[in-house]
Amino acid sequence: MKISVKLLVSFLLVSLIPLLLFGGASHLQFNQTIKEQSLNMLTTIVQDRMVEVTHFLEANENVATTAASTTVVVDAMVGLERAFELPDTSSSGYLTSEAKIRSLAEANGRLWGFSDLFLISVDGSVVYTTLHEADFHTNLVSGPFHDTQLAQVFERAKIERRTVSSAFKYYSPSDQPAMFVAAPIFGDSELLGVVAIQINATKINGLAQNYTGLGETGETVIAILEDDLVVFVTPVRHDATAAFTREVPLNSRLARPIQEAVHGIVGSGPSFDYRDLEVFAAWGYVPSMKWGIVVKIDTKEAFAPAIALRNKLLRLGLLVLALIIAAALLVSRTFSKPIGTLTNVTLQMASGDLQARNRVTSKDEIGLLARSFNMMADRLQMTNKELEDKNILLQRQKHKVESVSKALEDKARDLAKASQYKSEFLANMSHEIRTPMNAIVGFTHLLQRSNPTRKQMERLSRIDVSAVHLLSIINNILDLSKIEAGKLVLEHSDFGLNDIFDQVQVLMKENVKGKGLRFEVDRNEVPYWIRGDSTRLRQAVLNYVSNAIKFTEQGSVLLRALLLEEQEGEVLVRIEVEDTGVGVAPDTLPGLFEAFEQADASTTREYGGTGLGLTINRRLALLMGGEVGAESELGKGSTFWFTARLGRSQQARPTVTAEAPVDAETQLQSHYAGTRILLAEDNAINREVAESLLSNVGLVVAIAKDGTQAVAMVAAGDYAMVLMDVQMPMMDGLEATRVIRSGNNDLPILAMTANVFAEDRKACMEAGMNDFVAKPVQPDDLFATILKWLPLRDDVDVVEKSE
């Protein structure tokens, strides 16, 4: 970039940034002021409108009350009711009584603005109206207008013995909107009837169409709530036919202020009106009329002064910009010529002409730069030969470095391949071991449910226990291999340490009860809500507790948490498990945490185990920034401990709500019998196990032997769920799931696979599967997961569905 351009940019930045900041701040402040002033004005107007409506209602109630107590009305009520009993209202008696009231009604109607006056007998007969519309000579209790607002205020005034008002609605006899005010008529403390006045829309419309202070776009909206609709009561500025024709559904995006107003909410602020235009609005509520009132003005009109100010600032900015550019160009000419000369010499030297020199003779900074450059050229010419000599030496060293680098790259590739081969071996070994284990666990469960003899049940139980023990050993070996391969990554989430201790108590309850031991927990002062990998922390605690129970024949097992350090955002926690078991000899303690170590051979024969649990605990503690250890005395017991650095969560202790356990197997048998499920599984034994388990709970199972068949059967059939193996010929489960998901996003697809590493679970979720069931399949876990994803039924209380 040329120096003239840099000077121009610098001038622009130095001059325009303050101007832009000042102008922008002024514009924002002006906008805020306009917004506040507009809302204050609208709030004042809406309050005035509410007062006017209240006064309007009070005035009409006073008119009705006064009319009910006048002698003319009382006498007319008595006379007209008697005359009305005759079949002909044109009788002389009726006409005489009507003449007495008509002049009063017409005079007061003009004075007070009501359009009609009614006299209604106690039984609901309309004995007099000024206009003689369709409601005259009808009965408001049993006649055609018994459900009108006139009938409603008559009943209320008669029962409550006071003046009451109706809502403002469409009145069919008058073919226009109207409201009614009714007052009871008494004679010698006896209820003679009810006087009612009819008020039409003229005054209310005049109130709504008062645009004083509202500019060109402002208006007043008056509305009522009917069912789930907000109904406009009066015309509005932008819709002269809005009265009882324009409606806004509740919870609509449009006209939020009037929706809040009809619910009795008072407020103000920016919003969108019924035209979907941005407005400033203030709103209120008149309880006596059940009216919501909104006074609003378009924000475009309100911000018109701000827009004018912005345009002025833009014009000023353009003028300043032109002046700055002229000044920058003038200043840049002072520097551009000598700098151009210096640049040409520099280019000559860059092309290899080390004899080129600058001839700038000025005594300013540019002249000093030119002389310094000449001195540098002299030095460069002197050292050029030295550089050439050193370059030869560097070339020789370069060849050596390249040879070493190539050897290191080859070694790194070999290590990466070895790590990849080990990961693949672990994954394949896990799959191959778990597949026959699935058959063992599944067929054991099925045989236990097939009414075996007592001797057979004992043997099946031993098979089941052995399978669980073997699976635990396999999991420990795989966990240890993953840790050594660097594949185990700790998660970080908030959890409660007390919750982990409670879970351990539940899991170990039967073991403790079977040996008659006491299980105690001491939570100390460890913060309830901490952050770390709850799964691995629970695994470590379970390893210690299960060992303590295994090696303790009588007495107790104590699980204890200690807070060793507490810093901002971090705590150091020590977990101890103390037992009263057989103890460990001092000379064997140091090797306990090494892989496949036990105290001695007799321990292995008597208690079993591989020692992997302690080794895994040591590796997990190191991953969590801690360490492990043990203290023991033969015959008196042991204390095994580990420490972990955990995050300090800022969340409050959550409220725990107890939930009743769900018997998934019973729920499936009772409520989902006959439900069709597709099982995609290439292994014949695994198909037999899964099909038997599912059929036993009443589910109808269809079989697909590979992913291609599964895709075709989903497209052709109607299934409530798909249980999908991952490793299958033709098309694997992941690809089959992607194909199904391209045309069906609602069908639950559950992975049922022996691939149990975290990366396997992640791949299943990314392919579009909803959940994961690991092999060997535990029937209770399988049933609970199926129940979780089957469509909800009204008669089933199941676990909450995941998103």
Describe the protein.
The protein is an alpha+beta fold. The chain is built from 21 helices and 24 strands. Strands 13, 14, 15, 16, 17, 18 and 19 form a seven-stranded mixed β-sheet that branches. α19 (733-741) links the parallel β22 and β23. Mean pLDDT is 81; it is low at 601-608, 655-660 and 797-803.
**If helices are DSSP runs of H or I spanning 4 or more residues, what is the number of helices?**
21
Helix content: 40-55%
Major sheet details: 7 strands, mixed
- The tally of beta strands, per DSSP, is 24
Alpha-carbon Rg, integer: 46 Å
Counting helices, strands and paired strands, the structural category is: alpha+beta
Judging from the principal axes of the Cα atoms, what is the shape?
flat
Termini separation (Å)? Answer: 55 Å
Mean pLDDT across all amino acids: 81
- Strand-residue fraction? 15-25%
Which runs of at least 5 residues are low in confidence (pLDDT < 50)? 601-608, 655-660, 797-803
